[in-house]
Write a structure and sequence with these properties.
single chain, about 200 residues, mainly alpha, about 80% helix
Length: about 200
């Protein structure tokens, strides 16, 4: 460890970052010293703020010790670096989950899951999360739209019927829009003429 610390002091740029990350991993894995591991990863990010290895290392540490505010910032930075929509979706799902479960901030969680839906409107888990959050927030019009979108994205006719039936109930009871509920009922009957 001392040898690597000396080496890191004499290095610059990417070589320094790699050595600091290696040191951090040694502290984390072999020496079970999370605070020194965190310090080394943070030193690496001071040299290269967008180094994915250092970000991932800090992500692990922040999650392990419950530093959720730092974890959220870290995950947002990783989103900027993500190469594919699937990677962005996975990171956004984690952020939304933390906002909902750890911070009990349903507004922010809903906004985050809306980001997922902007990427993939049929994303099952995010549509389900939005339905749950909109119920809690009493955003019933948004709930009805989410249930409708979720039904459109489902390949399972039974699931479609269930989601559309929920949307009808929300439109009738919570939104007070019987005309929109009737349109949903017509879609239900088109799927299953015996439904009634």
């Amino acid at each position: 460890v001392l040898l690597l610390e000396t080496k890191a002091k004499n290095q610059r740029g990417e070589a320094k970052v790699e050595t600091l990350c290696h040191l951090a991993e040694l502290h984390e894995d072999r020496l079970a010293d999370a605070s020194k591991a965190q310090l080394r990863f943070e030193e690496a990010l001071a040299v290269e703020p967008r180094h994915l290895g250092a970000l991932k290392g800090l992500e692990r540490l922040y999650a392990r010790v419950g530093k959720y505010q730092e974890l959220l910032l870290n995950l947002r930075t990783q989103i900027e670096l993500s190469a594919t929509p699937r990677q962005r979706i996975a990171l956004l799902e984690r952020i939304g989950g933390i906002q909902e479960e750890e911070f009990v901030d349903h507004e922010k969680a809903a906004a985050t899951f809306e980001e997922v839906i902007a990427i993939d409107p049929g994303h099952d888990a995010s549509n389900a999360a939005l339905a749950r959050l909109y119920r809690q927030l009493h955003r019933f019009d948004d709930l009805a739209l989410t249930l409708d979108r979720h039904a459109k994205g489902s390949d399972d006719d039974k699931r479609k019927l269930e989601l559309l039936s929920q949307a009808v109930k929300v439109l009738m009871v919570d939104v007070g829009a019987p005309d929109r509920a009737l349109v949903m009922c017509e879609r239900i009957l088109a799927l299953d003429p015996a439904h009634g």
